[in-house]
């Protein structure tokens, strides 16, 4: 029987896990895309993205598209590693 490792509390949140899953499958994603796909409010998504950025899991770039603000997110190597470990640890609980 394998040893149970604690699940990363940062990734155990449904919204943060959804964001990380989406970012794994794309090079980068705009805030509006993440908001639409996760069906979250702008305020809640902003808070969760901030937590992921502070943890070093994602990078957030703020720029402008014409005169409109544009926020783009990208998963970082530490985020990929954390996500993969989370999935592995979750498999141990399931099996």
From TrEMBL:
Q: Where is the Winged helix DNA-binding domain?
A: 15-94
Gene3D superfamilies the record matches: Winged helix-like DNA-binding domain superfamily/Winged helix DNA-binding domain
Q: Name one Pfam family in it.
A: HTH_34
Protein name in UniProt: Transcriptional regulator
Organism equals Algoriphagus pacificus
- Specify the taxonomic lineage: Bacteria, Pseudomonadati, Bacteroidota, Cytophagia, Cytophagales
